[in-house]
Design a protein that fits this description.
Elements (H helix, E strand, L loop, with lengths): L168 H11 L6 H8 L4 H15 L3 H8 L2 H26 L6 H8 L4 H15 L3 H8 L2 H11 L12 H14 L8 H10 L2 H15 L3 H8 L2 H29 L6 H12 L2 H15 L3 H8 L2 H11 L1
Length: 471
């Protein structure tokens, strides 16, 4: 799918707030995909300007595709934005958040209960007889009787038993023929494997084993070399086991490969995080938490334990302004408002919030203190903790732009970081909608096409398989 170049000023400056207040819910039936690789959750903090999702493309998370404008386009199908703190217009918010309770006309602040019911707490002390409250930064308790947010489902390839129901016999036979005998037909490998979805891959590998009594990944590994080999075998691992393989590589040996660790773990849904931990334990017979503890120390270790706990707010959770304002005030108190930074307070908030909530927090922080949250983190933190926290904010504010910048980082300067380029491109390409958005974001920021950039940095079959993944 081609996306037009940005018009009317294009995408707003990366890292800065959008030009308007908290965006509203999209119209009914237009919720973005959830979880791995998906756009941030709807509600306050909804990013705008992503390309439309193709109805022919299987959704990454099973939710209806949003009908959105191309990345960077000036016109949005959403209603005009209201200033921060203004009540929603009459007739808006008739559609409840996905997984949320049905409701009538809004009363009071968005996300607050009707007047006279569940009065807001004026202190951190729970009411007499009420449930104990979690430490600050953890998920806030649900009002009594309120339904829980709908859990974000696992991404395709992260749940046991997921597979596509299609006849993969022809593809299996073509692959075997391409690798049998003298020489290898690399074009066939690229044509079939460069575009395959996670669930189709499961079916194809099973079919190849059944028809030819051979392991497809092992055959490809023996017939290819160098970066072309790494790209194809990374695809053949599938998204879950590629994550597990990447984590083991990040943690084994001397030192920790922090960028690879962050690529896999930051911004993941609870369901995907739990699947990764389980698969890691099944593969290596030890827990991921224990391996991370052995490689990291002090507050950085504690931050990663928060990430691995998989206690983020679900993507369908509401984004009430009162909670956003409380998080903004606490983040400011723990950083700029005092000498010395309460690092774990900041970590606790950002590791427990959904993408949509983080985006709302970032917008509100900029509006209240005239400084971006990302710049505050860069000035108050350093090293691996700084990089991880900044990435959490970038995941929430604009995942597509974060992906575009991450890909450019592997190609800029002298030499190409080929292994990192492959890992990041493979991880993005499993979600075709996200890949389209990343291409649009890359075009908006760097004024050129991602495909042409990759072609300038690679060659041969290695170039062709990367271009096939980009599409």
């Amino acid at each position: 799918m081609a996306y037009p170049p940005p018009q009317g000023g294009g995408y707003p400056q990366y890292g800065g707030p959008p030009p308007q207040g908290y965006p509203q819910h999209p119209p009914p039936g237009q919720y973005p995909p959830q979880g791995y690789g998906g756009a941030p959750a709807p509600g306050y903090g909804q990013p705008q300007g992503y390309p439309p999702h193709s109805p022919q493309t299987p959704q990454q998370h099973g939710y209806p595709p949003p009908q959105q404008q191309p990345y960077g386009a000036p016109h949005s199908p959403y209603p005009p934005q209201q200033p921060y703190g203004a009540p929603p217009p009459q007739g808006q918010y008739q559609q409840p958040p996905y997984g949320g309770p049905p409701h009538g006309p809004p009363q009071g602040q968005y996300g607050a209960p009707p007047p006279g019911q569940y009065p807001p707490q004026q202190s951190h002390q729970p009411p007499y007889g009420g449930p104990p409250q979690a430490p600050y930064g953890h998920a806030p308790p649900q009002p009594y009787g309120a339904p829980l947010a709908m859990p974000t489902p696992p991404s395709p390839g992260y749940a046991v038993g997921q597979r596509a129901h299609y006849d993969a016999s022809l593809q299996a036979d073509e692959l075997r023929k391409a690798m049998k005998g003298f020489g290898t037909d690399e074009a066939v490998l690229i044509r079939i494997l460069g575009h395959i979805s996670p669930l189709e891959l499961v079916t194809l590998k099973e079919t190849y084993q059944q028809r030819h009594h051979r392991n497809l990944e092992a055959d490809v590994n023996s017939e290819t070399k160098f970066n072309f080999n790494l790209a194809l075998t990374s695809i053949l691992k599938g998204p879950l086991h590629h994550d597990v393989w990447s984590l083991n590589k990040a943690l084994k040996g001397a030192g920790t490969k922090e960028e690879l660790l962050d690529d896999v773990l930051i911004g993941r849904s609870n369901a995907d995080m739990n699947a990764i931990k389980q698969a890691y334990h099944q593969t290596f017979r030890r827990s991921l938490e224990s391996d991370v503890r052995s490689d990291l120390s002090a507050k950085t270790e504690r931050m990663y334990m928060m990430i691995l706990a998989a206690t983020r707010q679900e993507d369908s959770a509401p984004v009430p302004r009162q909670s956003v304002d409380a998080d903004v005030a606490e983040l400011h108190r723990a950083t700029e408002a005092k000498t010395g930074t309460e690092q774990l307070t900041v970590c606790s908030i950002l590791t427990n919030r959904s993408d949509g909530q983080i985006r709302a927090i970032a917008i509100a922080y900029k509006e209240r203190y005239q400084r971006s949250l990302e710049s505050v983190l860069k000035s108050e933190f350093s090293g691996h903790m700084e990089e991880a926290l900044v990435r959490m904010v970038q995941c929430g504010t604009d995942r597509a732009m974060m992906g575009a910048v991450a890909l450019e980082d592997t190609m800029k300067g002298p030499g190409t970081k080929d292994e990192m380029l492959i890992n990041r491109l493979v991880r993005i390409h499993w979600d075709r909608d996200l890949m389209g958005q990343v291409k649009g974001a890359y075009r908006a920021k760097y004024k050129r096409e991602l495909v042409s950039r990759i072609k300038g940095e690679t060659s041969g079959d290695y170039e062709r398989v990367l271009v096939a993944m980009v599409g």
